[in-house]
Amino acid sequence: MAPSDFANANIDEIVENLTTDEAILLTAGVGFWHTHKVERLGVPAIKVSDGPNGVRGNHFFMGTPAKCLPSSTALGATWDTKLIEEVGLKLLAPEAKLRAASVILAPTCNIQRNPLGGRSFESFAEDPYLSGMLAAAYVNGVQKGGIGTTIKHFVGNDKENDRQGYDSIMSDRALREIYLMPFMLAHKYAAPWSIMTAYNRVNGIHVSEDHFLLTKVLRDEWNYKGLVMSDWFGIYSIDTSIKAGLDLEMPGTNKWRTLDLMNRTIQARKLTVRDIKARARTVLDLVQKCAKGAPEILDGDGEERTVESDEDKALMRRVAAESIVLLRNEGGVLPLNPQGMKRIAIVGGNAKATVLSGGGSAALKASYYISPYDGIVNALSEHKDVEVTYSEGARAYMTMPSLDYELFTETGERGWVGSWHTHLDDDSMTPVEEPIETRVVDETRIFISTSTPKGITRKWSFRLRGQLKPRPYDVDFEFGLTTAGRAKLYVDGKLIIDNWTRQRRGDSFFGVGSVEERGVVSLKANQKHNIFVEYCNVRGPADGDEDEAVMDSNPGVRLGGAEVINPDDEMARAVQLAKEADAVIAIVGLNADWETEGYDRTTLALPGRTDELIAKVAAANPRTIVVTQSGSAITLPWVDSVAGLVHSWYLGNATGDAIADVVFGKHNPSGKLSLTFPKALEDVPAHGHFHSENGKVRYAEDLFVGYKHYQHRKIEPLFPFGFGLSYTKFELADLELTEPTVANGDFSLTVSLSATNTGSVTGSEIVQLYVSLPTTSDLTHPPLQLKAFAKVYDLQPGKSQRVELTLDKYAVSYWDARFATWTVEKGQYIIQVGTSSDKLPLKSTFVLSKGFEWRGI
User: Fold this and answer.
1) Class of 407-563 per CATH?
2) Residues with Cβ < 8 Å from 269, sequence gap 6 or more?
3) Regarding the domain delimited by 310-394+570-692, which CATH topology (the fold level of the hierarchy) does it fall under?
4) Strands across the sheet with 821-824, in order?
5) Residue 530 forms beta bridges with which residues?
6) What reaction does this catalyse (predicted)?
7) What's the CA gap between 724 and 740, in Å, rounded?
8) Which of 148, 329, 547, 649 could link 193 by a cystine bridge, Cβ 3.0 to 4.6 Å?
9) What would the pLDDT profile of 229-265 be if each residue is shown by its tens digit?
């Protein structure tokens, strides 16, 4: 029987025929990415794959080249549900099929509570309504393509430090109105096939063990019928998680739900077979959905493939451009017209760097990448008289830059040669000299995870040999070596870095790696220099932690490096190039070291001397345009001194082309900020109560998250939520409201208005509608809440378009914790409509003469 035949299986019969052991096996994964198969009953395994901005496939190490989409905050900045659904259907679902994956572990729709959160870039927005509607569009697109989604991380996973232990302490109203709301909307409008639980606690209980959240809310109130899986290594019990409603433990490596432990739990009467079969049934339901959605995956060969088409590349480029937000455009400096220019200077630490996405689960091996520098140079190719000059200006990296394009094998292939060595036995630290496998490795950040060759011992070694690309000059070169395990770097046979004998614990490699250790080598002109890294998957002793643990889940090693420069000289060179240029394009920002799964940021400032560079370059040339790259908010103390400012987020494969399209006017920007940019860290709503203190994170800002805080406290942000400029201008007018209708426990009202392009070029605009609840309420409510939005596409100069926005019960409801119900009060409601949360020129009211309550979705 073909695996896809399971699409027609009778699940009731299979559940009845499952042995206890088979049911147990179904409730936990196999390896890192698969569910368990039951061949006796024709139940196939399904494969899942990360992630939020692309589909990586099985391997972090030497993975299958894949499409890297813009980060979720970038997708959020499009405010375009049609586009997000198209991305899901035309890009993500086909990518999953190419990776032989039936389910993708995305989207993430946690709230942007604080921009310091390490995974902020993975979530759409700071607003629950925008987050939920975009998540629903993402889910609908992917699942229309026959691929399952796993919406995550349910719920309150809004930071990284101490993420498996901290307790998100929040009010009932904040839980319902802010943090659960995106999941609720996504379920209402898209019904994701699966949901992933968060690592953390909420109000004292780990979510993976929380019967209230997983059963009472999710299944009983919302009538959710899909599967609930854990985050990887995100359960902490056996019977508690089963009884709470967690169907599937992932991964199958180092799992709790083993046959031995589960059977012992049954014998102790902590669980019944019925409990386990209830969980197994939901797993079978998911497998059947996958068999119906994309049967070719289950019947296929399981191989991962890469396919790129011109159509896909065009869509990637369009999505990236649509997400870019124009923040400042003094004197109409943008779009930049190169006509008549002699020289354009490009400066900044991100101009030539490979900045695809944030780090962690979002990381993948890109099938191609266009840097900002290359994108700009390509766009200027038709302007032959324009000279492009370049200076890094100020370095911005946390760890030494990748050497992916700096190392070559003896035969001239890009990369280095890695050889795997078993040890004398599982507990020995002595490697066998004869390798069991040798291969070319074209990566210098090597996160091996579980991608080890067959036959490897529990303790093993990996040796990497290559040659550094020769320089035409003598230069000092600084290397950086990071490891989850232990490692040494030799250059031309000389030990340069010892990250083996004694180590310093760090946050790398999902929190189990070392601090980067550095060493400097003097390189001779035109000479090849031999590079050798010796790695072992057993970490070395460290002060305060003598434990030499085996890295059986997250082994890895990273070698980076760069020429040693005089930072003052490099800064001066950038300023001089700025003085000599007709215009300056500065590309600066963060990268996957600064924003990543595993740890949180400590500052909103740009790294190193970046702010100093921009200030000096802007002073040297008034025609300075800054392009910032980050997945969340950053502070910009020099903002008033630059003519143009473009925020580009992380844009994936098409980064450089999309930036160039906006800078030179091929694309008129329409992106809007999906989160507030504060003037200072101290202005952030969660400031002072963001960190885990003795395992507690107090959500003291309560309902006043994001723009709601800034409006409530009358704090002026640097750039408000929903803000974004265009190369044209729009005017909204003629606001009309229908009479509100209340019937059958629901509410409806239609708002209409006209949008007119009053500028000189075709453009698109986001119409945003905010609601204020009655001031007669006994409770405090945020002053404004986003409750509807719509995109006006490609409106020509002088043309108008009528826009309709529909409100339902969600627009007028709040959670009443006394009665555990959603409540709509009688009274006067205010509607304000505009193009940014701080620019709402249209205003009207409506009155409800009678309120009502409702439950469910």
Assistant:
1) mainly beta
2) none
3) Rossmann fold (3.40.50)
4) 814-816, 821-824, 852-854
5) 467
6) Hydrolysis of terminal, non-reducing beta-D-glucosyl residues with release of beta-D-glucose
7) 31
8) 148
9) 999 999 999 999 999 999 999 999 999 999 999 999 9
Instruction: Please give the Cα distance from 452 to 98 (Å, whole number).
Output: 22
What is the phi-psi region of residue 229: left when phi exceeds 0, alpha when psi lies from -120 to 50, beta otherwise? beta
Q: Token match 């790294």: residue?
A: 607
Residue keyed to tokens 């240029």: 581
Which pLDDT does position 446 carry in this prediction? 97
Residues of the chain with pLDDT under 70: none
Task: List the end-to-end C-alpha distance of the chain, in Å, as a whole number.
Answer: 40
Establish whether the linkage from the previous residue to 155 is cis, with ω within 30° of 0.
yes
List the chain domain ranges: 310-394+570-692, 407-563, 730-854
Task: Count CB atoms within 10 A of the CB of residue 844.
Answer: 14
Q: Coil, strand or helix: which one is 337?
A: coil
Q: How far apart are CA 661 and CA 343, in angstroms?
A: 19
Contact present, 134 and 75 (Cβ < 8 Å): yes
pTM: 0.97
d(CA 86, CA 319): 10
Instruction: Decide if 310-394+570-692 and 407-563 have a common fold.
Output: no
Q: Give the CATH number of domain 730-854; options: 2.60.120.10, 3.30.160.620, 3.40.190.10, 2.60.40.10.
A: 2.60.40.10
Contact in structure between 417 and 437 (CB atoms under 8 Å): no
Q: Which listed residue (231, 247, 507, 661) is catalytic?
A: 231
For residue 843, give every residue at least 6 positions away whose Cβ sits within 8 Å of its Cβ, in sequence order, or none: 735, 830, 831, 832, 833
727 CB-near residues (< 8 Å, 6+ apart): 326, 329, 334, 335, 665, 668, 669, 759, 761, 763
CB of 113 closer than 8 Å to CB of 705: yes
Q: Where is 610: in which H helix or E strand?
A: helix 610-620
Residue 733: CA count within 13 A, CB half-sphere: 7
The token duo for 651 is: 């844009």
Judge whether 231 counts as a catalytic residue: yes
